[in-house]
Amino acid sequence: MKAIYRNAIEACQKCIVDCRICLTEMAGKESMNDCPKCCIQCADACDALLKMMTSDSAYIKQYALLCAEICEYCADHCEEHKHEHCIECAKSCRACAEACRKIAA
C-alpha cells in the first residue's frame, strides 16, 4: 500500500462508521430525502475504494472520483437533517470526498 493513500484510507474508514451510525439512527424513521439510503451507498463506495487502495489497483483514480461524488451526494442529503448523527455523517462524507479527490488528481 502506498503512503499517499493513508489519509484517504482513514477518511473512508471514518465515513463508513459515521454512515452506518446515521443509517442505524435513521432506521424506521421517515426521511424527507434519500437519507438513509444514501448512507448505504456511501459506505459501500468507501468500502470498494478501500479494497482498491489496499490492493493498489490500476483503477484507484476512477474509484476515487466516483466515491467522492457519492460522498458529496450523501453529505448533501444528510445536511438537510438537523440530527447530530446526520451532521456528523455529512462532515465525514465531505472530508472523505476531499481525500478522494486528492488521490484522483
From TrEMBL:
<protein>
    <submittedName>
        <fullName>Ferredoxin</fullName>
    </submittedName>
</protein>
<dbReference type="Pfam" id="PF03860">
    <property type="entry name" value="Csp"/>
</dbReference>
<dbReference type="InterPro" id="IPR044543">
    <property type="entry name" value="YHJQ-like"/>
</dbReference>
<dbReference type="InterPro" id="IPR005560">
    <property type="entry name" value="Csp_YhjQ"/>
</dbReference>
